[in-house]
Amino acid sequence: MKEIFLDQILSYKIKENKDYLQGGFYLIQNTVSGKKYVGKSINYMSRLKQHTFKSANKTLIDIDLNLNISEFKFYLIKDYAELEINFFNRKKESIIEQEFIYKNNANYPLGYNIRCYGRL
Known about the structure:
Strand content: 15-25%
Helix content: 25-40%
Largest sheet: 4 strands, antiparallel
Radius of gyration: 14 Å
Shape: globular
Number of strands: 4
Low-confidence stretches: none
Mean pLDDT: 90
């Protein structure tokens, strides 16, 4: 896992991306509570920046993150290129994301992930 620093996220210019070259699975960890959130995006840096927007309070992680951003660390778990994920095999994304959610104990209430994919 590679740490991504908050200043990198905040200074990142959001770009639309549809080619999966900047995609990846990321982890956000609350360093005080230990709770984790696992996400995915075809542009993970843009998605991490969106999590920091005050108006983004759409998920549990966004609410806590915006209360005290200094309590959080950000990581790239794996980029899509490493896992050979692209437009043609993108169904793998949800399966792999679910594996990372379970591996990192990120399911609610121990973590921030509340969506469950069931048996994929």
